[in-house]
């Protein structure tokens, strides 16, 4: 008998398991929360590649549990499997953190370290996934069923607590702490690594208190061997006229009939799993596509609070804690009062509909979000805007083009880019600039699909043309871009928040990103002389600004131009899609776990759990394929995913209609009480339809 918590039947050892799970989930979700932005901002990958690698990693995390289950069941047992694979997990985190240190090698080294780290993390987290919860359940005596059920509730609460805190904290570490003169991804990955070390240390510390069961054989392997033998035996059978009612019955020559019947029950459920990956293809985009959408939204809540785009993922974990009791205590009973039969498969189908609606909401948000995005020029064209610094109105004429038909006023904000046609991919164009009745000619070169600003200024009596290349892409973390154009004969130093600008003289220009906020008194110095504070006003999320530094009445002023408009859709508009996807998760995922548990024979529950986790893995594979292969506009991609899930829901509903619920306990009675009558005429177990069967267990979270 192990040590008990004071006055209870709870083993003291479960305290170490619960703390271990909290730290491990903090480690996993904390690292994953900032992963997409790490790919974009640090490794400089594009959105599609970042999304593809994110989902490849997520998919691998759900393929490896099968490996962990096989190792635990056949070789090491749960305790040693958790220890050894947690060490692999820690090594992966450390390598991932080192790869985020800018001074360690070049970009290729960072990519290599990141990929090795992610692979080891996937092996670690996936390998221990099927072991930790089961190991916790092993600590209880058989007669303490209620205590075991309460333990699982506490266990799942620790999972959600770790998820909420990590997705709140690690984005702050990424953005608020500066290291190596940039965002501190090394710290954002390092803290989860430290938590995983704590998780391993806590688990090892409780070693002497654990009840450790030895490996009991690989059930999954036995199932595969039985299926393989049935197929091989059926293929090789040469007896004419010999028939079996079910193809698995061909395994009766080597395997017991009970095992064959259990496999039949499992296969019926696994067939229902075939459409399920589509739900996960939508659900797991919260950390990729939805996070990318958040970077192009207004993230300020008043003047005092700003949310990070990667912090929005915590909404799912928070809403799970709210929605589970609401659905169990209010919604499901109310639906029952309307005399609508609630079955697990109907709940799952409804969950699919809610997930599709979530992507419908995401589509509407995306359509409005992209209105502030500057689309790149098509092939054979470039984008152009004109700054008139000549002091009077000017006319600009490009040979062979009808752009800029109206005069351009002095210091006029361009507001939007014009599309300039080119004769080839790299073209020199002649520009006529008319000022005060005189025309000057400029010859400038342009490259297709790039954006430029044409600066027209007067030097003595001569008109000069200066062409500078623009960055029209919004920053991936949502911060605004600022550039200063210095018209003075001396260089100017400007400090905006924590960002310093050294702006060269004589129409020198420099561009950097800064933190969002209001800057009404920015310090600057002109040569060795301090100049009066500049009023830059509000620098908002996603915008790009050009400040033209002029001298008026003996002091330097900053004339503000907007190159790329600010994000004008508030991030709160993502809340409906998170609420819908979480409602879908409650009905689909939690119910699916309950359904799988209730329909599986006792010794086959691990097989169905492996099958369930594989649906998550294949869902991520679907996103990987679409992200890399489709090349669709984002709102169209969202709409495509929603439509596909609705189509899959129809297919799943038809399959569910023909599914007959079974009670696995009948199998035990059949083989224990009537060993000679275990089969009917067709070799199948007689089944009782129990559509309203009470589910035997409630697993309140899918964050294992």
TrEMBL record:
Biased amino acid composition, Basic and acidic residues: 683-704
Main location: membrane
Disordered: annotated span: 672-704
Pfam name, any one: PTR2
GO molecular-function terms, A-Z: dipeptide transmembrane transporter activity; symporter activity
GO cellular component: membrane
InterPro entries: MFS_trans_sf, POT_fam, PTR2_symporter_CS
Keyword tags: Membrane, Peptide transport, Protein transport, Symport, Transmembrane, Transmembrane helix, Transport
Topology in the lipid bilayer: Multi-pass membrane protein
Highest taxon listed in the record's lineage: Eukaryota
Record field: transmembrane: 52-71, 83-105, 111-132, 153-173, 185-206, 265-283, 314-337, 349-370, 607-626, 638-662
GO BP, sorted A to Z: protein transport; response to yeast
Localization (cell): Membrane
UniProt family annotation: Belongs to the major facilitator superfamily. Proton-dependent oligopeptide transporter (POT/PTR) (TC 2.A.17) family.
Protein name: Solute carrier family 15 member 2
Species of provenance: Cyprinodon variegatus
Lineage, broadest ranks: Eukaryota, Metazoa, Chordata, Craniata, Vertebrata
